Every structure is written in structure tokens, then in C-alpha cells.
Amino acid sequence: MIEKKLIEILINFYNHSFTIIDKDEKLIYWSVRASEIFNLKHEDVIGKDIKEVFSEDQLLILEALRRNRSFEKKRHQATPDIHVDIKAEPINIRGEVLGAVVSEVDVTSQIKKEKELMELKSKVDVLSDNVKHLHNDDPFKNIIYKSSIMENLKNQIEKAAKTNANILITGETGVGKELFAQAIHKTSRLEGDFIPLNCGAIPMELFESELFGYDGGAFTGANKGGNEGKIELAHDGTLFLDEIGEMPLEMQVKFLRILQERKYFKLGGKKEQTTNFRLISATNKRITELLSSDNFRSDLLYRINVINIHIPPLRERPDDIESLFYYYLFQLSDKYRKDLLYADQQLLKEIRAYEWPGNARELINVVERLVIFSNGSSLDNSIFHQYLEEVGSDRAMNIYSLPGGDIELKEYVDRVEADYIRRVLENHDHNIEKSSIALGVSRPTLYAKIKKFNL
């Protein structure tokens, strides 16, 4: 009696699971740890054909029984949460195979550490790729990129900056047009300052005084000593006019004269002023849209668009999305004094799949949410999913969009199936029973799918 109890204690002493089947492939022993790993009670499996409990193609113990030989398998995913190393042995007594035993050693914590190290290395590699942009004297230190598209754009900007030609930066809202304007200014090595003015944010009645400045007493409530305008402040530097397409029509004529003659009068002033500045303009409108507009003068457009710098949206340069994601994650974690959390591969896949209509500005918004509201050791994917619901984005449509290039139908179907099963598992906290019910498949089938797709 004591020997049987001692064997039972020893079998369950370590963090190993043991399963034994007889020669008819029926379960005759199911250890405590096996119950914990597979969430199946002893009384639910004992006496059953093992193929009724698990999918046959994942049973190493059957190989040991049927072929009368030992088998080992490293890094097997027993469940979505548990990885094991497996060893299966036949029970051979006097030349007769009477059954087989399989032992599974839980290596989940080891694999988790290895994964965390790999993810950390990945993040370090991404951040290291961007170190070249972070030198204090680098004009492009705030422009994070990895794509060849942006490298070519940088080369284009460096050439343009060596001239004094007027530059028009085009691109969608949120791509960072002002950052590029600042990079041009710094690359130009001008003596004066970088002076920005958002043409869409200034009321029409204040636009002239804001741009040209005014002399004392020019209008009721004016500063007695007058005020410098943006043009005066930008002398020997750069005047950056953002959203130039919103400049009032009557101001366009006056500004065109400044570009032609480099002379102007302050509001209420009698002395003609001389100016010298580098003009960089920006708009989220297309050039053709400005040309066809009744509210923007074509002659002014030709003046400001000597060199056009077009910044492509994030969806056209997916290689930059992950670099920007990690860069903002690092910055915002530091800002909010929070530990740098891990981003799993599923989140990164969905981040890359989303089209980012708001571009970098929208990406910053999302990363900020993730940093503020995530708990634990990793970023909470559900926060991003909630954001997608808020903005009315069909996450599934983005993830399952048609792949680039030709692939076989079966491969594409497998991708969709794997992504859907992953989402269902996440929605049910990786509970196999609930997930299998939601998917309408048996637990053994679900285990087989998890193994097949390495989920």
C-alpha cells in the first residue's frame, strides 16, 4: 500500500505530467499535472480511447506504442499557454508491448524568457536603427524612418536645402510636414530663426497684422510700440506657412508682391521694409486641387512650388510604422514614467495592417492610449481594438486584405483561419472549452488547429 502511495507522490513530485495507455490505446493513468495542463479531470479521461480525447496526429505516445520505440519532441505547445518537452516510451515486458507512457516537462517559463529576450532584442535593434537620427546636430533627428522611400526623400531634401528656392511640402494631415520643414531649415544652416504660421488658424481680420506686423496706433487696441510680424521675425531665416491653401484670397496678392520684390509695409506703417527669408509652405491639398480652386491664385502657387517635397502617408511605407511605434512607445513611456511594456506580434501585425488615415499624429494618439491604460508586463491589445471600434474601422478587413503578390488559395485560407482562431482564443482568454464552442469544433480539433498554425 505504502509503495503504491510513494510511487504516486514521486510521479507528481516534479512539474512533469505523466500519461499511460494500455496496448488497446486506452488511458489507464492520468497524473495531477496532466489534469492541470490540459484542463481535463482524471475521471473524464480514464478508460477512454486516447484518440477520443486528443487528435491522433499530435499523440507521440501512440507512435511509441505502435512502433515499439522511444520518441522525443522539444518545444511542443500543449495548450495556448503551456509549452512542454515530450518523451514517450513503450512499455515492453519480455518482448511484448503492453502499453506506453509519455512524460511532459513544462518549459513555459523558459520559453517566455527566451521570447521576451527576443522581443527586447527586436526593440533594441529597431531603436538602434534610429540612433543615427538622434544626434543633437542632426537636422533629421526627429524624423524616424526605416523605408527606402524616406531615405530617398531625405536625400531630396538635402539637395533642395542647399538652394534658396521656395519649397512646397505636400502630404496628408498628420504626416509631419512641419518636422520636415524644420529639417530643411536646419540643413540650410541659415542665420535666422524658423518662424511658423498656420494660415488656417488665423482669423481673416488678423491675418495681415500677424504676417506683416503693425506700427503703434495702427488700429484700436494696438500695442503702442507696434508689433513685429512673422515676416520680420523670419529675416535671414525660414518663414514656414502651414496650410497655405487657407490663406485669404486678398492676402495672396500682397504676399505675392513680397515674394517678387522682397519689400512690404507694416499695417499702418509708412516706411517700406526690406526682407530676406527662406519660404517653405505646406498643404494637405493636391496641387491639382489648388490649381482648380477659385480661392487660390495660380500665380502664387507657381511662386511657392518651385520645389515640391511630397511626404507619402504611412500606409505607403509600412516599414516605418513599426519604427515609429517603438520610438513613440519609448518617448511616451518616459513621459508618463511607466515601464517599457512588451508589444506582442499580434498587436504589431494589426498596427501594421491598419491604414492610419491620420498618419503619425494618429499613431501617437494610439501609442499614448496603450501606454496610459495598459497594465502588467505587456501592452493590452484590446485597447487598440477599442480604438478601432471608435473610429469605425473594420479590423478584420485590414488584417485579411489581399496579400501582395500571388499566393496559393490554400495558404491564404490558412492565414485567415489562423487569424480568426487566434482572435476567438483571445476573446475567451485562451479557454479551450469556451473557444471550441464558439468555433463550433471539438476540443481535440481545436488543439490540432493550434498546433498546425503554431498559435
Short description:
The model is unreliable at 395-401 (pLDDT under 50). 47% of the residues lie in helices and 17% in strands. The chain has a 5-stranded antiparallel beta sheet, with helices on both faces. A 5-stranded parallel beta sheet has the order 7-10-13-6-14. It has a two-stranded antiparallel sheet with strand order 8-9.
Describe this structure in words.
With 455 residues, the protein is α/β, with parallel strands linked by helices. The protein has 3 domains: 2-106, Beta-Lactamase; 139-312, Rossmann fold; 317-453, Helicase, Ruva Protein, domain 3 (Orthogonal Bundle), CATH 1.10.8.60. Helix content is 47%, strand content 17%. The protein contains 21 helices and 14 strands. The chain has a 5-stranded antiparallel sheet, with helices on both faces. A 5-stranded parallel sheet has the order 7-10-13-6-14. Strands 8-9 form a two-stranded antiparallel ribbon. Strand 1 (16-22) and strand 2 form a beta hairpin. Helix 14 (318-335) packs across helix 15 (345-353) and helix 16 packs across helix 17 (381-390). The radius of gyration is 33 Å and the shape is rod-shaped. The two termini are 44 Å apart. The model is unreliable at 395-401 (pLDDT under 50).
